[in-house]
Write a structure and sequence with these properties.
heterodimer, A: alpha+beta, 3-stranded mixed sheet, globular, B: mainly alpha, two-stranded antiparallel ribbon, 4 strands, about 5% strand
């Protein structure tokens, strides 16, 4: 069953290229829409100078294309403001262990 | 010194970390500093080396990625110099006043990286060597402050590897770019094999391993590097002078190794057959064509300020 929930579930497996925190826990996903086989993801980044934008975008597309029932993935980069407050408690715990936050 | 050799070795054997000079002997500290200088110099010199090649980035995103990597490398260098400073080393003198030839980074960085293609192969090969070596230090080091600092370093190197692999994949799809890629792989692969140093039959690591400054030997680390670098190239249809030999359970190098290298033309002179490691050490000591330019890029600002203050 393809819906917002299953898409988010899959996105929890897409990790930041540097740290083992998912793009969901990092607070980069700003919306998911599912219409039939078409998935739309609104994506922001931690900064305008993020060196990993293309890698993150590709990882998201590749993961979602592997989901059953997905024909098309559209990633919309929205550049909505991001701050460390957007990291989930789980993500914060991982980053704390790595000495990042 | 506050502890005896026996007390130090007992501490290391029991798996407790060394947290500062007061727990170590002079000999241990000398070994630790030597290892740290190699690591710090390598991270530092990679910044101007990569910066030079990044000018050839194909687009703004690629350029930002390269800048992100360079920024990481400077951060890694900073960590290692900081640890040296805490051990009483004058790091200003070390970084800004040392003769370029006295830097301890691998010879590979003294051969200039001159294009985006060469930069991404460096990310895939050289950063992988750093990843293998520092991973070994992280797992094995008996020096607590370094072990804790390497957690973050290790993660960042991961991104550098991915960047290199991703771009090698992109370039390999285009026949013209693939030729350039092969050309870069041809000179950089063997140079990275050299990076791991003398083979085990010529070098005794007993001391480094006993002190917990290193976990694996040079040859073991070389194998570890090949175990991921060779499959990567094979997957992309790039030729490399090494292959896996199932009977031996290890990778075998298919060209004379070590060999003579023409740094100006970036070519290996395999026809001349294998050379002695003494000859290699001579080449390393003499440093390569980009050595002075890269070190000066780091030292220039410091010299200008010093001159300004004297004026």
């Amino acid at each position: 069953m393809l819906n917002q929930e299953t898409v988010l579930e899959a996105l929890r497996e897409v990790l930041d290229p540097e740290y083992p925190v998912s793009v969901v826990d990092l607070g980069l996903i700003r919306g998911v829409e599912v219409e039939g086989g078409r998935v739309r993801v609104r994506l922001t980044f931690t900064s305008l100078g993020c060196p990993c934008t293309e890698i993150i975008r590709e990882d998201i597309v590749n993961r979602l294309k592997a989901l059953e029932g997905v024909d098309e993935v559209v990633v919309e980069e929205v550049f909505e403001p991001w701050s460390a407050k957007d990291i989930s408690p789980r993500g914060r715990l991982v980053l704390l262990q790595l000495g990042v936050v | 010194m506050l502890v005896s050799e026996e007390a130090l070795l007992e501490r290391i054997r029991s798996g407790r970390l060394i947290e500062g000079p007061e727990y170590a002997t002079e000999k241990y500290l000398e070994g630790l500093k030597r290892t740290l200088v190699v690591s710090a110099d390598t991270e530092l010199i990679s910044a101007p080396a990569y910066f030079r090649a990044a000018q050839d980035a194909p687009n703004i995103n690629a350029y930002i990625s390269a800048m992100g990597i360079i920024q990481d490398e400077l951060g890694h260098a900073h960590i290692a110099y900081r640890l040296l400073r805490d051990l009483g080393v004058d790091t200003d003198a070390l970084v800004f006043e040392r003769d370029p030839k006295a830097f301890k980074h691998p010879y590979a960085f003294d051969v200039p990286l001159e294009s985006w293609v060469e930069l991404v192969v460096a990310n895939a090969f050289y950063d992988r060597a750093g990843f293998v070596l520092l991973g070994d230090v992280y797992r094995s080091t008996s020096y607590g402050p370094w072990k804790r600092a390497l957690v973050k370093v290790d993660r960042e190197e991961n991104f550098h590897l991915r960047h290199g692999e991703r771009w090698m994949e992109i370039l390999a799809q285009d026949p013209e770019q693939k030729k350039k890629l092969q050309r870069a792989v041809d000179w950089m692969f063997v140079l990275t094999l050299e990076w791991f140093g003398l083979p085990d039959n010529l070098k005794r690591h007993t001391e480094q391993i006993t002190y917990g400054l290193k976990g694996k030997t040079n040859d073991q680390l070389r194998q570890e590097w090949m175990s991921t670098a060779v499959p990567l190239c094979e997957r992309l249809g790039l030729k490399v002078p090494a292959h896996y030999e199932p009977d031996l359970g290890q990778y075998v190098i298919d060209v004379p190794f070590p060999a003579e290298f023409d740094a100006e033309r970036k070519e290996w002179l395999f026809d001349k057959g294998p050379i002695s490691w003494d000859r290699v050490l001579e080449r390393w000591k003499g440093r390569g064509p980009a050595n002075e330019e890269l070190v000066k890029a780091i030292q220039r600002g410091y010299e200008q300020i010093r001159k300004g203050l004297k004026a």
